[in-house]
Design brief:
Strand content: 5-15%
Shape: globular
Largest sheet: 4 strands, antiparallel
Number of helices: 9
Structural class: alpha+beta
Helix content: 40-55%
Radius of gyration: 18 Å
Amino acid sequence: MSLVLDAAAQDLLFREARTAHTFTAEPVTDGQIEAVYDLVKYGPTSSNQTPLRITLVRSPQARERLVQHMAEPNRHKTATAPLAAILSTDNEFHEELHKLVPHFPQVKDLLYAERPVREASAVLNGALQAAYFIIGIRAAGLAAGPMSGFDAAGLQKEFLDDDHTPLMVVNIGRPGPDAWFPRAPRLDAGEVITTV
């Protein structure tokens, strides 16, 4: 069975897309990132929650502070990417649910009153939104370099607060020279799909 999405779009979003490790100097604008978010905000989440928060690290001073918290292999690419984004979860996302789930006003207190429940839900749904964000970056014709190699406590203290948990850092831009590592293998459908 074929997919409805045309082959070129499938390649752009998945088959030919890979994590970029180098970038050109071409800037990435706030408008581009806003357009990406305006597309991917429609991706489904539990209770329509929106825990993902995006911190764009633009200034040289902020970039220096960010690089200090990155694992050694990630420092150079984070320092040289045109834009770095810290993707985090807002563990107080439930305060926005009255806007997002107006047909179920009790959802905030019924499902998300306890902080541990919110934190677990924020990680799951924030990760979903982060994946949508990466696909959106690709849909904008840009490359993404998502990374989890960083000092989470240091990053949180430097850029966030106790109500926000860092998920990943994503370098964003046009791919530069030797941007791609060789394509790594993937499991086939028969290895992951079970029918019961």
